[in-house]
Specification:
The structure holds two protein chains of two kinds. By secondary structure, chain A is mostly beta strands. Chain A has one helix at about 35-40, and strands at about 5-10, 15-20, 25-30, 45-50, 55, 70, 75-80, 90. In chain A, the strands form two sheets. In chain A, strands 3-2-8-6-7 form a five-stranded mixed beta sheet, covered by helices on one side. Chain A is globular and about 40 Å long. Chain B is α/β, with parallel strands linked by helices. Chain B has three domains: about 1-115 and about 260-330, FAD/NAD(P)-binding domain (3-Layer(bba) Sandwich), CATH 3.50.50; about 120-255, 3-Layer(bba) Sandwich (FAD/NAD(P)-binding domain); about 370-435, Arc Repressor Mutant, subunit A. Chain B contains 19 helices and 22 strands. Chain B is globular, with a radius of gyration of 22 Å. Chain B starts with a strand and ends in a 10-residue tail after the last helix. The chains are: A mainly beta, B alpha/beta.
Chain lengths: ~100, ~475
C-alpha cells in the first residue's frame, strides 16, 4: 500500500486484472467502478479539455459531468459508468477532439 | 416490441417505491436505471455494500434494502445499466443497455431522476482532485475508496454526514471549511418550530457533529474568498474566516452547498418549470400527485424538489397511486384514501426543511462568481464571459449558447445551467423565470452509431 497516494482502497478482496491507461500498465480490482479504481491507482488526470488542454479528473462520479471521459476502443466513455474488465486498454481522449 | 403499463426512469427511493406500489395495484412496470445495481445515489449499491461496510455508512443507508427488496415483486422488470437517451411521443423510451440500443413503449412514464449537486463554481474547481461531496460519498459507498488528505468545503447536512463517515473509516478530513454564517443560523431560528417537529433530522445532525468534534476535525465557519490552488491538480484550499487568511494543503477537495433537481429529462419533453426561491433552483410544476403539464408523465423524488430519500419514497407511492387511477387499475376513492396518510407523512418529513435550507444557504460567491471563474466546465466559459454576453444583449441561456458555447459540451448544461441563469438574471435585472433555462433536446446522454446499429426489438419485459 502506498500511503502517498490520494486515495485508499478499504479493500473488497477482488481479484486484480491487467488494465492499461495511456500506456501505463495497472493491476485493478475486477468488477470495480473504473473511475474509482483508476483514482486508487494514483491516476488523477483522466484527460485534457479540448478547449484549453487543462487537465481533468472525475468530478461527480454519477454520470452527469462528463469530466472522467476516457477512450476505450476508439469510443469516448465515462469512466465512472464503467466497470474494470481484464485487458481493458484505455487512453486519454485525443486532445482537440470533441 | 416491449410494452408496459408504467415505465419508471431511475431506481432510487422514488422510483423503487413507485415500482413496488404500482405493481401492487396490478400494473406491469419496467424500471430503467443507469447503474449496474439498484439504489440510486443515496442507496448506491446497497444490497452488495451493506454487509461490507454498513456500519460505517450508517442505519439510514442500510434501510435502502427495504426498497431494493421491493423490486423483486412480480410484475416488475428492472433494466440495470440502461441509459435512457430519449423520451418520445407514445410514450416511448429509447435507451442503451450493454452497448445496444432498444425502445420500450409504456402507457405512462414516471421520472425519478433525482438530484444533482448544486454547481459550486469557485476558482480552481475544475482541477483534478476537486470533486463533489456526493462523489466522495459514492466512492465510499460503491467502491470503499477513501480520500486520504481531503478538505470539505461548503455547507449543509451532507457535508457533516460524509465527514462522520470518513471519521468512522479512520480517515477523517483534514478540515471542514464551512460557508454558513452565524447570521444564517439566527435567520433560521424563525423556522425552529418546524425544525423541532422534524426533530429526528436535527438529532441526527447533532450526532454527526458530535462524532466530527470528538475526532478533532478542525471546523472553520463563515468561510469566504475560497479558492482551490495547485499545478495540474488540487494542492490547497485558500480562504478567509473570522478575518484571517488560511491555506490548507490537501490532495482532494469535496465541494457541497446543497443539491438541486435534475430536470434534464423533464425539460426534454417540455414539462413546465418555475423558480423556487427558497431552494434557489428550478422545479417542475406539479400537482399534489406528481402529475406534470405533459399528459403521460409524472415526476417523483428529488427531481421534483429537494426533500430527501424518505420524502422521495412517499412521493413515488403517491405518484404510483395516481397513475394506477388514471390507468383505471384502482378508482379515485382508493387513490385518495390511500394517499392521505402518505401526504401526512410527507409533511412531517419536510418539517425541518425550511430550517435547514435557511441555516445552510448556498454560498453567495458561488452563485455570483468572480469574472475569471469557469462556469461551464465543458467549454470553459467564465462568469465574466457570460456577463459580457449580457452586455451585448444576451437575455437568456439559449442565446448564451450562440454567444460562446456555454452549455453545449457533453454535460449539456447539467453543471452550468443554474449558474448561467443566475448570472444573466442578475446582469439583466430580470427574474429567474423570465430568464429561463437551457432548452434540453435528446439525446439526453451520448449514443454511438454502433449502439444505434445494434438496435433490435426491446428485451422481454413484464407483460
Amino acid at each position: 500500500m502506498n500511503n502517498a497516494l490520494p486515495f485508499e482502497d478499504l479493500g473488497e478482496g477482488r481479484a486484480r486484472v491487467a488494465v492499461s491507461f495511456a500506456g501505463q500498465e495497472l493491476r485493478l480490482p475486477e468488477g470495480a467502478n473504473l473511475a474509482a479504481a483508476l483514482l486508487t491507482a494514483g491516476i488523477t488526470t483522466f484527460r485534457h479539455t479540448p478547449a484549453s488542454g487543462a487537465p481533468r479528473g472525475p468530478f461527480c462520479m454519477m454520470g452527469a459531468c462528463f469530466d472522467c471521459l476516457v477512450e476505450v476502443d476508439g469510443v469516448t466513455r465515462q469512466a465512472c459508468m464503467m466497470e474494470v474488465r481484464d485487458g481493458l486498454v484505455l487512453d486519454m481522449p485525443q486532445a482537440g477532439e470533441r | 416490441m416491449a410494452r408496459v403499463d408504467l415505465a419508471i426512469i431511475g431506481a432510487g427511493p422514488a422510483g423503487m417505491a413507485a415500482a413496488q406500489f404500482a405493481a401492487g395495484k396490478g400494473l406491469s412496470v419496467c424500471i430503467l436505471d443507469e447503474q449496474p445495481r439498484a439504489g440510486g445515489q443515496i442507496y448506491r449499491d446497497v444490497d452488495r455494500v451493506a454487509p461490507l461496510r454498513g456500519d460505517l455508512l450508517g442505519k439510514d443507508y442500510i434501510e435502502g434494502r427495504a426498497l431494493t427488496a421491493g423490486l423483486g415483486a412480480p410484475g416488475i422488470t428492472h433494466l440495470a445499466g440502461a441509459v435512457v437517451w430519449a423520451i418520445e411521443e407514445g410514450p416511448r423510451l429509447a435507451y442503451t443497455q450493454d452497448g445496444k440500443g432498444a425502445v420500450i413503449d409504456a402507457r405512462h412514464v414516471l421520472l425519478a431522476t433525482g438530484a444533482l449537486e448544486r454547481p459550486m463554481p469557485l476558482p480552481g474547481w475544475t482541477l483534478p482532485g476537486v470533486m463533489t461531496a456526493g462523489a466522495g460519498q459514492i466512492l465510499l459507498k460503491q467502491s470503499g475508496v477513501m480520500a486520504r488528505r481531503a478538505v470539505l468545503v461548503g455547507s449543509g447536512p451532507l457535508l457533516y454526514l460524509i465527514a462522520a463517515q470518513m471519521v468512522r473509516a479512520g480517515t477523517p478530513p483534514l478540515a471542514m471549511v464551512e460557508t454558513q454564517t452565524r447570521g444564517d443560523f439566527i435567520g433560521a431560528l424563525k423556522h425552529l418550530g418546524g425544525a423541532l417537529r422534524g426533530w429526528r433530522y436535527l438529532l441526527k445532525g447533532l450526532g454527526l457533529l458530535n462524532e466530527i468534534r470528538r475526532a478533532g476535525v478542525v471546523r472553520h465557519t463563515g468561510a469566504h474568498g475560497i479558492a482551490i490552488t495547485g499545478e495540474g491538480r488540487a494542492e490547497a484550499v485558500k480562504f478567509t474566516a473570522k478575518g484571517r487568511a488560511h491555506r490548507i494543503g490537501c490532495d482532494t477537495v469535496f465541494l457541497h452547498h446543497g443539491v438541486v433537481p435534475n430536470t434534464q429529462a423533464a425539460r426534454s419533453v417540455g414539462v413546465a418549470h418555475c423558480w423556487n426561491a427558497q431552494q434557489q433552483c428550478f422545479v417542475p410544476e406539479l400537482d399534489g400527485w406528481g402529475a406534470t403539464s405533459v399528459a403521460y408523465l409524472h415526476i417523483a423524488g428529488d427531481g421534483a424538489g429537494i426533500g430527501g430519500a424518505k420524502v422521495a419514497a412517499l412521493a413515488g407511492r403517491l405518484a404510483a397511486l395516481d397513475i394506477a387511477a388514471r390507468l383505471e387499475a384502482i378508482d379515485a376513492t382508493v387513490r385518495d384514501s390511500e394517499g392521505a396518510p402518505l401526504r401526512r407523512a410527507t409533511l412531517s418529513e419536510l418539517a425541518a426543511r425550511p430550517f435547514l435550507d435557511t441555516a445552510y444557504p448556498p454560498l453567495a460567491e458561488a452563485l455570483a462568481p468572480a469574472d475569471k471563474t469557469i462556469i461551464c466546465r465543458c467549454e470553459e466559459v467564465t462568469a465574466g464571459d457570460i456577463r459580457g454576453y449580457a452586455r451585448l444583449g444576451c437575455i437568456g441561456p439559449n442565446q448564451a449558447k450562440a454567444f460562446g458555447r456555454a452549455g453545449m459540451g457533453p454535460c449539456q448544461g447539467r453543471y452550468c445551467g443554474l449558474s448561467v441563469t443566475q448570472i444573466l438574471a442578475e446582469e439583466n435585472s430580470q427574474s429567474h423565470d423570465a430568464t429561463g433555462h437551457y432548452r434540453i433536446r435528446p439525446p439526453l446522454k451520448p449514443v454511438t452509431l454502433g449502439e444505434l446499429a445494434a438496435m433490435d426489438d426491446a428485451p422481454e419485459a413484464a407483460e
